[in-house]
Amino acid sequence: LLDAPQPIDWPGVRDRAMLHLCFAAGLRVSELTGLRLDDLSLTPQASILVHGKGRKERCLPLWKVTTVALRAWLAVRGTFQVPELFVNARREPMTRSGFEYILEKYVRIASERCPSLNEKRVSPHVLRHSCALAILEATKDLRKVSLWLGHANMQTTEIYTRADPSIKLEALNANTAPQLRSGRFRASDKLIASLTSPSFMRRESRSE
User: Fold this and answer.
1) Which of 55, 146, 150, 185 sits in a 20 to 30 Å window from 207, CA-based?
2) Complete edge-to-edge strand list for the sheet that includes strand 47-51
3) 128-183 pLDDT, tens per residue?
4) Active-site option among 16, 28, 77, 106
5) Number of Cα atoms under 13 Å in the Cβ half of residue 73
């Protein structure tokens, strides 16, 4: 899906950059369309400054493939009196509905090679969700996922553990039962007496 846009013309270069960035940074649509040119830094380490909910900002490093796509976009974007990073054909800021239309377009194109996409509803949030699962699988750390996505609290991030059962399996494996050593055990006379006392037997019969 991310490589469905063919970078052979202005829209194709832009669309590939948008899809790669939306997935790699786990962006909300409002965060993607709100990005400005000066939020992007390509040197020395490529990164993007994201303006999230509640005026919270987070600076995210960019993968190499995402950086390549963004460099290609900057090379053809042109200079307009518009501060936003992504613009539409009218050279106006990209809108939410505009991006959703573009995403639907490439889902249809990608489904020709991957028919299973026809059975799924791929929304902008699905890209964000997929990013979260990729980070969770790589790090096994919910705190890192929370920081990457800009969640206000961990309860929101914990939703992703339900979608990735391997996280629960790792937690289970990390809490193995203690190993009991075989050997002889001799109960003391006091212990035997307490276990065979009438009061103990009455308690046991009531609990069954």
Assistant:
1) 185
2) 40-41, 47-51, 57-61
3) 888 888 888 888 888 888 888 888 777 777 776 665 555 444 433 433 333 434 44
4) 28
5) 27
Distance, CA of 125 to CA of 27 (rounded, Å): 8
184 a catalytic residue: no
- Which residue has tokens 């059975």? 119
Tokens of 86: 């992504």
Could you confirm whether 53 is annotated as catalytic?
yes
Name the residue type at position 39.
D
190 catalytically annotated: no
Give me the domains of the chain, ranges plus CATH numbers. 10-120 (1.10.443.10)
State pTM to two decimals: 0.74
